[in-house]
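Quick entry, no commentary yet.
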Amino acid sequence: MTGSTDTGFFTARSLVTTAVCAAAALALAGCGGGKKQTGAVMAPSQVTTIGVNSYLWRASLDSLSFMPLLQSDSAGGVIITDWYINPKNPGERVKVSVMILDKDLRADALKVTAVREVAQGGGWAPAPVQAATVQKLEDIILTRARDLRRNSMGG
């Protein structure tokens, strides 16, 4: 053994190699294992990265797309528009709020409110909103949400 520096079973090189391999094994041991997740298949409305029903959210945004948005919060399910003035009736303006209250696609998971003002004396004065207007907007959003769901299911 001419020129050999081996002094036995544990050389400096083998100790370092063993330590590196042990550290790598410990690091890899923490990565795997665990229990396999076996859950029920989720409904398409539940597979979402937002906090509310994705169909109602998309349908609400689509239905209000002609109005300028003031605030939209997908986690909380709130959409608030800015004042919208219809070019055909410049003497009134409307502001709409939509709240999505649930992750399920149901009629009671949607709440729409509207505020209306009319031009009066160089300013804007509050005016009543017909109940049918809010109901019609809710119906439009729900119909659009059902269509989106139907299309996503392939039918």
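second:
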Amino acid sequence: MNALLQLLAKSGLLMKDFDYHLLRAAMVVIFAWFGYDKWFQSEITALAPLITHGPLIFWTIPLLGIHGTAILLGTAEWTFGSLLLLGFWNKKLGVLGALGSIATFISTLTILPFVPDGWDAGAGGFPAMAMNAAFLLKDLVLLVVSVYLLREDVIRALGLPRER
């Protein structure tokens, strides 16, 4: 076990800010990909049942239609991803990206209790999730990553010492 630990220590895993940069890069990729998907009718049509049941975003489809909702969500995701990317160089822009990311994942997590057929009846219903609800649970981790990036960017933008 000690040999494994020493190997991991020499691998770059302990490099200063490795986790911070890795998480930021992952979030940029996620927002780029999610934003790209929203430009296709099939994606937004598949998401429409979730969106219409979301207490924070239900209004988008009646107000903007399917196509307008796709544009809004795709543009928001690309904007937040771009701000997170720019956060590598400008922490204040990173703060804006992290705030947008937090809003995104809070919004999607609020859908979870209201997902149509989201609770697996064959397994007794709540808390057994069906796949259409379980797929939203990933947003809990993405929300936590967003909060971490926000914290780090605020600390760095203000030049404060980092406490761990």
